[in-house]
Design brief:
Two copies of one chain form a homodimer. By secondary structure, chain A is an alpha/beta fold. Helix content of chain A is about 45%, strand content about 15%. The longest helix of chain A is centred in the first third of the chain and has 16 residues, at about 70-85. The relative contact order of chain A is 0.11. The structure holds a DNA duplex (30 and 30 nucleotides).
DNA sequence: CCTTTTTTGTAAAGCGCTTTACTTTTGTCG
DNA sequence: CGACAAAAGTAAAGCGCTTTACAAAAAAGG
């Protein structure tokens, strides 16, 4: 049988309210406090979070919603969030939505019934409505690595994808590349990265060719197909940027199939600095995000809201960093270098 | 203000017990049932899981404990478990332990206080004691992809690592390899794989060289170092098996550093068939596990125990499959092939 | 040594739901 | 149409904890 506060009270010879008080560090005389502590110890008493939450206390549980925990980048984020959450005494209950709106809605509803203290929503949401509804429900929410919704008053921690796109493009331009392709996704973050790409081109007075931007279905296979297609085109690019590392792996495979040497014949870059980018051959030049600090901030913001410390919302924009590895080099066709 | 069962009862003009009964599909007259349903609908009533769990019902939450959610293989497993759990109406709360015993203990304790309905423990545990304690606590537990503890009466779903090691070694032997190295880890699964490796050697009357088995610290860097070391040895191996795909990436890098062509000069294999093995160059011959079915079974077994359907424990041993890709080929030094 | 404060400790209500035991309604049948 | 069984509905206790309002005890002061 589970040992309850009553058992402790009885064993210590005090009332349950006294026991409750020592648990919550309230004024209790030294003597009874000791008695209670001793009783707890001896009975190996573990208070029920359920019961205490029912009276209005926290559940110390965070709803963590993302598209797919199996995605290495998201898994890495999850780990960082989890670590910070544990540090401050919270647990994560995880739900993968596959970007399906009905799952997003269902899971949020379910977790609310389970009285999670707040939500961390990672990555873009299929449907803004879900978000809007949630923010109207007086429950703490943090958007992490998601599109920034300027119109929504919700705490947000994002990386500046525009800068990321700008940096990596500039890096390639620095190597003399002029025809730089971009394999993108439909997500909002990709669009931002493309904006940065365009900005870099423009600042260096390079022409923007619409046909160099292609949209993938986010699979390695599709990226490979697109890469081959790009490389087969009459005026082929000398560098290919992918909007994430996995896509870049596809590019690598496609290029190899065509007998190209990376980076001698073609520069390729990834995005997100995942395990993949470090372990492939050649290791990828990519863009790293300050994941750890972003996750820590996201958790801390959420907790502050949960505990009612802070009321005003804020949006944090983190800056990404260019990581230069072996997959990029000078444009082999550039005459004057 | 949150809407409770009282609000519904009042609106419907019945008692709360009637409302409770319709929620739990018990005998209730048609008329009142409709009134209640309508009231619930209109009030957008969502029963509190906390309150209902406090009275003895399930929390429909599973404690999911593993070493590191950021590990791609584990993330994949997590996803499968999550999917199945959601299908049957359960959520996962996730805890990464880094193999630290104190974390294992703390998280299990914490989750018990939160009244999770059961635990799924993934991978090997640092300390068997934690496990033993847990199994003595009348809470449902499943070991997934973990060492089988023959002495423990606990539900288990594991892959047959012995077979895995045997299969991949036999595959290499079939290619004429005789000096086959094995880069292992300390975990129990590695040991089983090595047993299979030895068995294969023996069945083919090949000598077992102790110096061909090396233990890594599980990092890519260390695997690379060990690979180089093996390749520098006087009587170098013609094939290297790694006990997981990540280590194999390290081998790939080491081999490349030494100017070897894979698979012409050296065959290398991974284990676990992760994303890594598919996306690297050349794609790795590896061992795949029936992850999906294993995870489904694990969840189902747990639920059965939670709901008290089944009482007897069982241990399920799944069979792995050899996946042949481009990283293995004939032994170049073999005379008669 | 008695009154006033302050410190400790307690009883009881309440959190939102389930469940048991019981009462009221309905329906059935002779 | 009255007696009785079945069906429908309800009151109340209880799950394990927090908290408020209050009582008892201890400390302080005159």
């Amino acid at each position: 049988m589970k040992v309850t506060i009553y058992d402790v009270a009885e064993k210590a010879g005090v009332s349950i309210s006294t026991v409750s008080k020592v648990m919550n560090n309230q004024q209790v005389g030294q003597k009874s406090k000791q008695k209670v502590l001793k009783a707890m110890e001896e009975l190996d008493y573990k208070p029920s979070v359920l019961a205490s939450a029912l009276t209005g206390k926290r559940t110390s549980t965070i709803g963590f919603i993302l598209s797919d925990i199996a995605n290495p980048f998201l898994a890495e984020i999850t780990r960082q969030v989890e670590d910070r959450a544990h540090e401050v005494g919270y647990n994560l209950v995880i739900c993968s939505t596959d970007f399906k709106q009905e799952k997003e809605e269902r899971y949020i509803e379910l977790l609310r019934q389970k009285s999670v203290d707040g939500f961390i929503l990672v990555g873009d949401f299929k449907n803004k409505d879900v978000l809007v509804k949630l923010t109207h429900k007086d429950v703490p929410v943090i958007l992490l690595a998601a599109e920034s919704h300027p119109s929504l008053s919700v705490n947000t921690v994002t990386v500046d994808n525009f800068i990321g796109g700008y940096e990596i493009t500039s890096h390639l331009i620095g190597f003399g590349h002029e025809r730089i392709a971009f394999i993108a996704e439909t997500a909002g973050s990709s669009q931002e990265r493309i904006r940065g790409y365009k900005q870099a081109l423009q600042e260096h007075s390079l022409p923007y060719h619409e046909d160099l931007i292609v949209i993938s279905d986010s699979s390695l296979e599709d990226a490979k197909r697109l890469a081959v297609q790009l490389l087969d085109s009459p005026n082929r690019p000398t560098a290919i940027i992918s909007s994430n590392d996995l896509l870049a792996m596809g590019v690598l495979m496609g290029a190899r199939e065509k007998g190209l040497n990376i980076p001698k014949d073609l520069s390729v870059t990834g995005f997100d600095n995942t395990l993949l980018s470090k372990s492939c051959d050649p290791p990828l030049t990519t863009i790293a995000h300050p994941i750890k600090s972003m996750c820590t901030q996201a958790v801390d913001m959420l907790i502050e809201e949960v505990e009612g410390v802070k009321k005003e919302k804020q949006k944090i924009l983190a800056l990404p960093t260019l990581i230069v590895r072996k997959s990029t080099d000078y444009n082999p066709f550039k005459t004057n270098r």
